[in-house]
Write a structure and sequence with these properties.
CATH topology of the largest domain: TIM Barrel
Function: Catalyzes the synthesis of 5,6-dihydrouridine (D), a modified base found in the D-loop of most tRNAs, via the reduction of the C5-C6 double bond in target uridines. Specifically modifies U20 and U20a in tRNAs.
Number of strands: 9
Distance between the termini: 57 Å
Family: Belongs to the dus family.
Cofactor: FMN
Helix content: 40-55%
CATH superfamily of the largest domain: Aldolase class I
EC number: 1.3.1.91
Number of domains: 2
Enzyme class: oxidoreductase
Strand content: 5-15%
Order of helices and strands: EHEEHHEHEHHEHEHHEHEHHHHHHH
CATH architecture of the largest domain: Alpha-Beta Barrel
Length: about 350
């Protein structure tokens, strides 16, 4: 079993964790493990790799997450992961959406643990990369700890390098994907118990963890923590990850301004003329979450990107405005100005 650093990761999120999102997050944390959106293995088999697997080398360490149930498709996808420079390949058996179920992959596969074990073995034979599994604790009424233990034990014996567990069960019918992230109760006790029962299997906890502070206690007993949407809506929560989680001190102080500029330069270098700027600015919207000027920052990016023909100037104007805001704020310290007043400084 290949050893990998699992201490902190950002969850794979459909329509969110694309290559540009991962580049932005990498500017903030050099060591947090990042994931692609789930890529259907069947699409790689039929449509080719470029569209789905191209990414910037600065994103690494990055994990390719595959969805599927056809052994030959998954083996092919696993082999491509190595070819395209990924660090790990992950099998999704946790997504409960109807579309995924229709293709016989995602969470519905948890009802077939032996078959999932065979898929993991097939993928492992096709690549030298670590093969990991992302699951729920159960599905529908198959939600006992005994059933989860059996599933995890099969993953271990199949050679999975880690099990990433969203600590909720999934309802395959009756709940939307969003509701399946919120309605089923979190069962952290299942995750802790499975680590105690199967200490040789690296376990990563996902579900309900929103800050580094909440992550740290879990690292005393588990191998890692995965943060989901909280890291997308407020990416700056990862700013202290390299030092607090991984023990790596940065040579220079990280600032939101430097991250925004670095991302702007990346967009300028990589955006094709026919790609809407909104595809990039949407990831940048949460960078100043909770800071003075955040509301205007979000508005300048979202409204500016909506204009026909908008380009890099949308990001440039937002950065320039934040620079002016910071300078004005420094000039008016002690004069009673509030953040509400500063918001009104936007031209």
């Amino acid at each position: 079993m290949t050893q990998i650093d699992l201490r902190l990761s950002v969850a794979p999120m459909m329509d969110w964790t694309d290559s540009s999102c991962r580049y932005l997050l990498r500017l903030i944390s050099q060591h947090t493990r990042l994931y692609t959106e789930m890529v259907p293995a069947q699409a790689l088999w039929h449509a080719g790799a470029e569209r789905f697997l191209h990414h910037h080398p600065a994103e690494n360490p990055v994990v390719l997450q595959l969805g599927g149930s056809d052994p030959k498709h998954l083996a092919y996808g696993a082999s491509l992961a190595m070819e395209w420079g990924y660090d790990e390949v992950n099998l999704n058996v946790g997504c409960p959406s109807d579309r995924v179920q229709a293709g016989r992959f995602g969470a519905c596969l948890m009802k077939e643990p032996e078959y999932v074990g065979e898929l993991v073995q097939t993928m492992g034979a096709a690549t030298s990369l670590p093969v990991t599994v992302k699951s729920r604790i159960g599905v529908d009424d198959t939600d006992s700890y005994e059933a989860f233990h059996r599933f995890a034990d099969i993953m271990l014996k199949a050679g999975a390098s880690a099990l990433i567990v969203h600590a909720r069960k999934a309802w395959l019918k009756g709940l939307s994907p969003k509701q399946n992230r919120e309605v089923p109760p979190l069962r952290y006790d299942y995750v802790s118990a499975i680590k105690n029962a199967l200490p040789a299997l690296p376990i990563v906890l996902n579900g309900g963890i929103k800050t580094l502070e909440e992550s740290l206690p879990w690292l005393e007993t588990l191998d890692g923590v995965m943060i989901g949407r909280a890291a997308y809506h407020d990416p700056w929560i990862l700013a202290a990850a390299d030092s607090r989680i991984f023990g790596h001190q940065k040579d220079t102080e990280l600032t939101r301004r430097a991250v925004a500029q670095g991302y702007r330069d990346y967009v300028l270098a990589t955006r094709a003329p026919d790609v809407p700027i909104s595809r990039f600015t949407r990831h940048l919207i949460g960078l100043y979450q909770g800071q003075p000027g955040a509301k205007t920052w979000r508005r300048m990016l979202s409204e500016g990107a909506a204009h026909k023909g908008a380009g890099i100037e949308v990001i440039d104007r937002a950065i320039d405005w934040m620079d002016q805001l910071e300078a004005k704020e420094l000039d008016t310290i002690g004069m009673g100005d509030t953040s509400d007043h500063l918001e009104r400084l936007v031209p």
